[in-house]
Design brief:
With 431 residues, the chain is an all-alpha fold. 72% of the residues lie in helices and 0% in strands. It is built from 19 helices and no strands. α16 packs antiparallel against α17. The chain starts with a helix and ends with a helix.
Length: 431
Amino acid sequence: MVLINDLVYYTTHPQELLAIIQWKIWYQPTHARDSSKASSGLKECWRFLRLSSRSFETVIRELPPELVTPVCIFYLILRSLDTIEDDMTIHPSEKEHLLRQFHTHISDPLWSYTGNSPTMLDRPLLLNFPYISREYNKLKPEHQRIIASITAQMGAGMAEIAASLDSGITTNPSYELYCHYVAGLVGTGLTSLFTAASLAPSSLHSHPTWTESTAQFLQQTNIIRDVRADHDDGRSFWPEQVWRKHVDAFEDLFLPQHRDEAVRCGQEMVLLALGRAEEALRYMALLEEGDEAVLRFVAIPQCMAFATLEACSGNREVFAGKVKISRGVACRVMMDVRAEMEGVCGVFGSYAKRIREWNERSDPCDGIEEVCRGVERTAGAIVEEMKVKRAGAQGRCNEVRRGKGRYMYYRTLGMLAMAGVITAYFARDVF
């Protein structure tokens, strides 16, 4: 049945089918990894990563060799921490203690945690945490310091807001603060790992809000997409400041008779996420000055998030079940990202335009048109900046070539003149 549905879908979406075929034929990893040389413990960590998130496992594997293991371990540690925070069955006082003390356990090869609910997807990470700890202890001291610092800050932040999550997030600033603790700090840690390896410009540290926006854009999009699943699990991350404008109780958003109100509420959440997009673009434009694999590692999830945000925009299905982009759309986005920053800007600009045009046709949400046009302008401006920069670099190369050409020309003339003088000197006795 799934095959038949796919056949019908791609018959009416031939461009997506073409993108899948192109990806299958032309995709080549930026950095090849020989997993046979990995230790048994590291192989287990990669297995856990694949079980936790196949999509992140794919992009992490493409990182340069000096980053691939630190980022893998960093992800697993923070995912383990997040699994404790997500588990609603853990007693609040125990959860707070675990969150605040978690960073003290990451180097302990004997520590593990068995108190998660059996229904938690990533429970195996905590049951088998010694595998992660042992690989963490093999990392460079600088990488360990970065990971430990971010883990400590994230755990403390999660503990601080854990109590408020029981009753829901009330204000937009509280929502942004939550996203900072669970995502913004991840962005800070990754940026530090990139620059420590000299694979991204150190000037990234001069733009902390760009780093924050890049991480928050991803997190806020996921919160919009997962609203129904979170509600079914007894959790709510949408701020009351937003949903209270449209319904009397948060659960009303999921009732069929309130679908119009739910869509308008969803558009306000989309607006909050879109407010992060321009700075995310600026962050990635600066990343282009470093390693291309690092740029793609960041850009692929960002572009997937924008495609997901567009799919959620104005979509009633968000409140009925999880909205996912098709495999064809995902492949097309990844093909665009492989065209480097121009492709990233193309993805951001095109999806911003789609959201803006839908908003204009339907019940408009104040602010969406303005912020979307801002994203489109920034995307266009970055493309022009890249063209100027590359034209300048090409001009310098041409100037060097011309300089070398003039040098060779005059050198040849000089050699010919010298040869003439020598020939005339020795020829005087002949004639």
